């Protein structure tokens, strides 16, 4: 079964392909001729996931899904949240974002945080949403080289290493996106 994943992020693509397995042929935006950045103008993760999925559906008429993820830090009132990609600068500068997060949390004891992923699926023109959450803490320095984004700073509950120190399989098994995709699979196979 063919389905468009509204992303060109190769990290996300390989994470999602690993969870969805061979039963679905996942096609990227580029492969369906969408080369422009889809505007993420929503005020929430739910809105942005929906905006991206609808954008793809309106242009292609194909079944599709889009995800939006945010890191929500308790001591920062849920920031960077929906602005996670553009926290430090307008670009997707992971290093600058991590530096800013460490700076904002300097001297802060409460370092609780969670990653939340919302996925909007449009199938046969009908939209449904699922989400996945992983709770954890923000480390005081970066560790590890796997993954992307805030992974070098995020230690999931029950573990003593960051996401960036785990293999892709280990991360997928407990991550926000892994959990959201598991819910997506239930919708697709149900
Ligand atoms: P997006 O809008 O879903 O692409 O995600 C927004 C931002 O959240 C990304 O630019 C990353 O900085 C961060 N992010 C999303 N997923 C992850 C993840 O699995 N690990 C670490 N950071 C992530």
- The helix/strand series, from N terminus to C terminus, equals EHEHEHEEEHH
Strand % is 15-25%
Helical/strand content category: alpha/beta
**Biggest sheet statistics:** 6 strands, mixed
Tally of individual helices:
5
Radius of gyration: 16 Å
Strand order of the largest sheet: 2-1-3-4-5-6
Q: What molecules are bound to this protein?
A: inosinic acid
Give the distance, in angstroms, between the N- and C-terminal Cα atoms: 14 Å
Counting DSSP E segments of at least 2 residues, the number of strands comes to 6
Judging from the principal axes of the Cα atoms, what is the shape?
globular
Mean pLDDT: 94
Low-confidence stretches: none
Residue share in helix = 25-40%
Question: Could you please describe the fold and organization of this structure?
Answer:
By secondary structure, the protein is an alpha/beta fold. The protein is built from five helices and six strands; from the N terminus they run βαβαβαβββαα. It has helices spanning 10-20, 45-60, 94-104, 168-174, 176-189, and strands at residues 2-5, 25-27, 64-73, 112-123, 126-138, 154-156. The chain has a six-stranded mixed sheet with strand order 2-1-3-4-5-6. A hairpin with a 2-residue loop joins strand 4 and strand 5 (126-138). Helix 1 crosses helix 5 (176-189) and helix 4 packs across helix 5 (176-189). Residues 67-69, 71, 84-85, 92, 94, 97, 147-151, 163, 175, 177 line the site of inosinic acid.
